[in-house]
Design brief:
Layout: H1 2-29, H2 34-42, E1 50-56, E2 64-66, H3 79-89, E3 97-107, E4 110-118, H4 127-139, E5 144-145, E6 149-152, E7 187-195, E8 200-206, E9 212-215, E10 219-221, H5 228-231, E11 234-238, E12 243-247, E13 250-252, E14 258-263, H6 267-281, E15 285-286, E16 290-292, E17 303-306, H7 310-320, H8 323-334, H9 344-357, H10 381-392, H11 397-402, E18 405-406, E19 426-433, E20 436-444, E21 450-458, H12 466-479
Parallel strand pairs: 4-5, 4-6, 5-15, 6-16, 9-12, 10-13
Antiparallel strand pairs: 1-2, 1-21, 3-4, 3-17, 7-8, 7-14, 11-12, 18-19, 19-20, 20-21
Length: 481
């Protein structure tokens, strides 16, 4: 009996020792690599401001974590959730349509009534694509419109949008609000070219809108290009239907040709300006104005513009981190579960329903617009990692992974990892806001193993976080074995 008790006690002791060793091993795995920890601390970023999760795909547990359940602002890495959901819910080949309707009789090439343009949320109607729609209208034989241009923007619910609310930069293109009939991101491109013969600067605008006037003739200067925009002493003033741009400063010859994108006018008057210019350029006649309205139920369009496929849109969104396109796609997700008009609230519900279908429950998730251009959106690094693992097992894996920026090759990481072994072996989405830096994606190790890497930094010194974030990605690649 005594021998049995002794053996039992020894067995319990061995089991206890094994459990302690196992737990110690798990705790060790849960720590960031010391080199990465040191890199954050060297940048004066406390580890309490860092959330990270790294796991080999197919492994039962993470390689290491750092505050993995903490809800964090992910900045633009939130686009990963929006684009993955879109690829599955809408399908990679989904296309948006923009339609033109005749609200009146057409006889002898004359429309006795209004021309109605109906948008369904196309995220990227370029100048060239809009001109193609106008050309198709002209190809029907239509030459004269005796009514107004009526815009049907009802596919998205009307919602107030303050372009200055996020960062007091209302003219920045990334602050343009979503719209069911979004044309060229509602943006004007100013192109500056040195004219040495005249000692001034040639300025042209694209598209050439009559409602946007340019004033001033900047003088040429010597020296480095530097902060050429500040040197122009630009002043932009305007209303919803017209704008003025004044450039009274100097422009360095060393700059060569440069451009500056500015969001001017409101959506309706920008569309009007685009239409008037394109229509008159191909011989059409129009003297009306612009107003809101609806296409008649059951009416057949006389011309239709079809968008590029969703997978191409997703590539632009993730590689180039286009906020306006992400918001357009996010709103479109509302229509997969609810009838239009689309709302951000219904879009969030549609995404949450889709997540439940994948058995993914992210209780900390906060969605505001799906782009990450938000002070309110939140997700945990563990949740983002689980999302990436689910995407790796999805039928849309190829389209999703190829949409990410490739280390040292393209997108937002084109200039990063240039001298690192991980160049061309990491597919990443970055995130940048004031006080936020983030990175999330996949690392393809030389061993053939694949890892998901997620790291969020929320701290006043986040602008200093790029070196440790890049080191984390490189460390995973180097130490995968």
């Amino acid at each position: 009996m005594c021998v049995r008790a002794t053996l039992l006690r020894r067995g319990v002791a061995v089991l206890a020792a094994w459990l302690v060793a196992s737990l110690t091993s798990v705790d060790a795995l849960a720590l960031l690599p010391r080199a990465v920890e040191r890199a954050f601390l060297d940048q004066r970023i406390p580890l309490s401001a860092v959330s990270a999760y790294v796991q080999e795909i197919g492994a039962p547990r993470p390689l290491f974590t750092q505050r993995p359940l903490q809800a964090m602002n992910p900045a633009s890495t939130m686009k990963l959730l929006t684009t993955f959901a879109a690829l599955e819910l809408l399908g990679p080949d989904y296309r948006w349509t923009t339609e033109a309707y005749a609200d009146g009789l057409i006889a002898g090439g004359v429309l006795e009534g209004n021309l109605v343009l109906k948008g369904r949320g196309d995220p990227k109607i370029t100048i060239e694509q809009f001109q193609e729609l106008v050309a198709r209208l002209r190809a029907t034989g239509l030459s004269k419109i005796r009514g107004d241009l009526v815009l049907d923007r009802t596919y998205f619910a009307a919602a107030p949008h303050d372009p200055s609310a996020f960062d007091s930069e209302p003219l920045r293109p990334y602050n343009v609000g979503p719209d069911a009939l979004l044309i060229n991101f509602k943006t004007v491109r100013f192109v500056f070219s040195p004219n040495v013969a005249r000692d001034n600067v040639d300025i042209r605008i694209e598209p050439p809108l009559d409602s946007v006037a340019v004033h001033g003739e900047p003088r040429l200067s010597s020296g480095d290009c530097g902060d050429w925009r500040a040197g122009l002493q630009a002043v932009f003033t305007g209303r919803a239907d017209a704008a003025d741009a004044t450039f009274s400063g100097r422009y360095p010859i060393a700059c060569g040709e440069r451009d500056w994108y500015v969001a001017l006018l409101d959506h309706p008057h920008y569309t009007l300006g685009m239409f008037e210019h394109s229509w008159l350029e191909i011989g059409g006649s129009f003297s009306g104005t612009v107003r809101e309205g609806r296409a008649r139920t059951g009416a057949k369009p006389i011309a239709t513009l079809e968008s590029a496929p969703l997978y191409a849109m997703v590539s632009d969104i993730n590689k180039l981190s286009n906020n306006v396109m992400a918001r357009q796609v996010f709103l479109t997700l509302s229509t997969t579960a609810f009838p239009p008009p689309a709302t951000t609230e219904n879009a969030a519900k549609a995404v949450e329903r889709w997540l439940r279908g994948h058995k993914l429950r992210f209780p900390e998730l906060v969605l505001e617009n799906g782009s990450g251009l938000s002070r309110h959106e939140r997700i945990a690094s563990q949740s983002m990692a689980r999302l990436l693992i689910a995407a790796d097992a999805s039928k849309v894996r190829g389209e999703f992974v190829s949409s990410l920026a490739v280390a040292a090759i393209d997108g937002t990481v084109r200039k990063r990892f240039q001298n690192d072994n991980v160049a061309d072996q990491a597919f990443l989405k970055t995130g940048t806001l004031e006080g936020v830096r983030a990175i999330a994606g996949y690392v393809f190790a030389p061993t053939g193993k694949r890892f998901v890497v997620v790291c969020f930094v929320n701290h006043p010194n986040a602008s200093r976080a790029q070196p440790p974030l890049d080191l984390l990605v490189q460390w995973v690649y180097d130490n995968a074995r």
